[in-house]
Input
Amino acid sequence: MQRILVTGGAGFIGSNLVLALQERYPEAEITVVDDFRSGDFRNLRGFRGDFVAADVSRLDWHQQFRDQQFDAIFHEASITDTTEHNQVLQAHDNIEGFRRLLEYAGSSQSPVVYASSAATYGISSGANREDQSPAPANIYAFSKVHLDNLARKYTRRHPTWKVVGLRYFNVYGPNEVHKKAAASMIYQLYAQMKAGRRPRVFKAGEHKRDFVYVKDVVAMTIAALGAAPGSIYNCGSGSPFSFNEVIQELNRGLGTSLEPEYFENPYSFYQPHTEADMTKAQTELKFQPQYPPARGIADYVAILEQRAR
Output
């Protein structure tokens, strides 16, 4: 691994990935492309590589990189705010950014690992499997479905080209604070409790999410370089965790005993349960998450508390 490209590398998942790659491949030339819409420069403290400040959906890739070839490309760039309802903006920037990247990378067939989303499954209960039909409930999810469609289209043209997708579930962990209201519910609840307030959740805190720690996400994203061309995988913990359980673990990490404050759920379309079936990743990538929710939350709280000091 001599040359590595990461789009969205100043964002939450992207910055964790960049710093992990830098540690794993200290001699590699790592280039980050990011326009800071979903990122923050502070996430890349200690980064020693190159930085291109650009929107991937409008970048002239061939002009920017000319004849450079990358040993691996990780595509994390996206409008990640699911409350952004401008359909043209979401669809254009997310889909066309990936299309332009694939057009550029196709000439060298550099391996591409890209961020898809569990949102492609829509509002459902039970464990989600990769062979389920997509059912996007919002424009963000729709755009991610079309990333998967583009990946299939390009790998049909080039059957040996490694383009691999990861459907991220509910990711949490360091470097998400800059996302503010779009940060994970685990961080939102931590911030409330850190301020001494009772954590507010929908009645009666029994909704479950597949919370996956960003350290596991990074490990699986790198492991996906070993996947077969055209593969797509769920990326979760495989262990759905209720909001009540999250609050219990946060109390343990903070040394508090704050009771939840329950309020009525105003949304008829609210997701009751997310869960990743991780069988395919375990079988094909030999990947096993190392941070079940309780352990991940404990590690995250320790990091947040250390940074607060």
Summary: The first strand starts at residue 3 and ends at 7. The mean pLDDT is 95. The two ends are 37 Å apart (CA to CA).
